[in-house]
Design goal:
The structure is a single chain. It is globular, with a radius of gyration of 23 Å. Strand 19 and strand 20 form a beta hairpin. Helices cover 32% and strands 18% of the residues. Helix 10 packs parallel to helix 13 and helix 11 crosses helix 13. The chain is α/β, with parallel strands linked by helices. The protein starts with a strand and ends with a strand. The longest helix is centred in the first third of the chain and has 20 residues. The structure holds 4'-deoxy-4'-aminopyridoxal-5'-phosphate (PMP). 4'-deoxy-4'-aminopyridoxal-5'-phosphate (PMP) binds next to helix 3 and helix 4.
């Protein structure tokens, strides 16, 4: 479905803690008319904060190269880039120089995304490093450790069991070699919060380090490297209301300093010479620049810093309390529908961020999501959410290959082929969540009003109807 017009939806007051772009965008309904788009897929990519956009727009005319030019705008851009590093360090509670009894402070390395950050760390693992991950992780946290011995831990059924499982696995490992635990702060499938502090304590007690995948946590809760006592944290700007292609890996400097540069090129090298024998000799930087070769994404980094400031000023307590209300609206609004089953590892009442996945008896997830979009103007995600082992486990068996959509028709109680995920955040007005609840109720009760078919693996409204 394509966006048809952009209008000022003056008739519809939008109440959300922080204004975001796209709040007035309308989309056509397959059944006729238009509606303001309800973006309920924040867990995939959140809309830009208006404030982020304004800050980017204010800077854009002054754009210049970073670390590379003598001109005024280059110097201004370099200052902005390094200011952003300080803002992000503060936002993430990084340890100052000499902090944590480790003799040196944390480092903030700018990357493209969480995936990029975790791949950077994977490329910096010391020889012989063992890696421990839960099978519940997003693929970005599950897969980068290709050069390490990876132990994939069973999905826990409670936060306590997560800690016990990790402790058992670490107790069995070779005690003196380097080890890394990679864990998510909030699941991109269930939204559930993981016991990061306790897992960090368990890792450290067994001589291992820990990296926190905060892709889903940072947009919803404060993340402090210092308070959680994690060694690194990774996040993405596009989930943090700053969709301009930046990400972060923040934390301990030593493994990063000792590793080969992630990318080889300008900016990472301090001094390059051609030897007599015709080979090239390089002296690499040992700060963050070592892993930031190439011209930095100053707009993306400036946007990320702007989002950090906006979220901090709004206050995570306030934001989380509002989000709790929205979660309750969804849960209470659908509680009496036996056809709707929410996916959860730790139980329905476990603390979570505004990310909820569910299956609907008799519906394929892609069909349900297509109907939400085409008939109600609601954007959600369906499928296995780049966390295949977790979602397969929660669905109760391996989903079959996708077939034709067009159900209902499958028998209630039959295994779903994929789940539906609804997610929201600081720009979500109540109306979007209320419309979602109403839409789910109507679809479950009355079925879809349109027919759908599968095109290129996606369920879409049948234009020939
Ligand atoms: N970890 C989690 C928990 C995620 O939800 C995602 C994105 N869905 C990622 C990592 C990867 O983030 P990105 O695609 O921005 O690299």
């Amino acid at each position: 479905m394509s966006v048809s017009t952009v209008s000022t939806a003056a008739d519809r007051p939008v109440r959300a803690p922080l204004p975001v772009l796209g709040r007035d965008v309308t989309v056509p309904l397959v059944t006729g008319g238009e509606v303001v788009h309800a973006a309920l897929d924040y867990a995939a990519s959140a809309p830009a904060l208006q404030r982020v956009w304004d800050d980017v727009a204010a800077y854009a005319p002054h754009y210049g190269s970073v670390h590379r030019g003598a001109g005024h705008l280059s110097r201004l851009s370099t200052d902005l880039f390094e200011d952003a590093r300080r803002t992000v360090a503060e936002f993430l509670g990084c340890r100052l120089e000499g902090g944590g009894g480790r003799g040196e402070g944390d480092q903030v390395v700018f990357t493209r995304s969480t995936t990029d950050s975790l791949n950077l760390l994977a490329a910096a693992l010391p020889d012989g490093c063992e890696v421990f991950v839960f099978e519940t992780e997003h693929h970005a946290a599950l897969l980068p450790w290709r050069n390490a011995r990876v132990t994939c831990l069973d999905a826990p059924s409670s936060p306590r069991q997560a800690v016990e499982t990790l402790e058992r696995a670490l107790a069995d490992r070779h005690p003196h070699g380097p080890a890394l635990v990679c864990v998510t702060g909030a699941s991109n499938v269930t939204g559930e919060l993981w016991p990061v502090r306790e897992l960090a304590a368990a890792a450290h007690a067994h001589g291992a380090r820990i990296v926190l995948d905060a892709a889903q946590l940072a947009p919803h809760r404060p993340v402090s490297v210092r308070e959680l006592d994690v060694d690194w944290v990774a996040l993405s700007g596009h989930k943090l209301y700053a969709p301009f292609g930046s990400g972060v890996l923040a934390g301990r400097a030593d493994w990063l300093r000792e590793a080969e540069p992630y990318l080889a090129g300008g900016g990472a090298s301090r001094r390059v010479t051609r030897r007599e024998d015709g080979t090239v000799d390089v002296e690499w930087h040992d700060g963050a620049a070592r892993h930031e070769a190439g011209s930095p994404n100053v707009i993306g980094v400036h946007a990320l810093a702007s989002a950090c400031r906006a979220l901090t000023e709004a206050g995570f307590d306030t934001l989380a309390a509002r989000e709790e209300q929205l979660i309750r609206t969804v849960r209470d609004g659908l509680a009496d529908l036996p056809e709707v089953r929410f996916l959860s590892l730790f139980g329905d009442d476990a603390p979570r961020v505004g990310v909820l996945s569910f299956v609907v008896a008799g519906w394929d997830g892609s069909h349900f999501a297509a109907a939400l979009s085409a008939e109600y103007g609601i954007g959600v995600r369906d499928g296995l959410f780049c966390a295949h082992p977790l979602v397969r486990g929660l669905l109760g068996g391996g989903p079959r290959d996708r077939g034709e959509c067009g159900a209902p028709g499958t028998v209630p109680g039959e295994k779903a082929l994929g789940a539906v995920r609804v997610s929201f955040g600081v720009g979500t007005p109540d109306e979007h969540v209320e419309r979602f609840v109403r839409a789910v109720r109507e679809l479950v009760r009355d079925g879809a009003r349109w027919s759908y078919r599968t095109v290129d693996g996606r369920c879409v409204p049948d234009a020939s109807r």
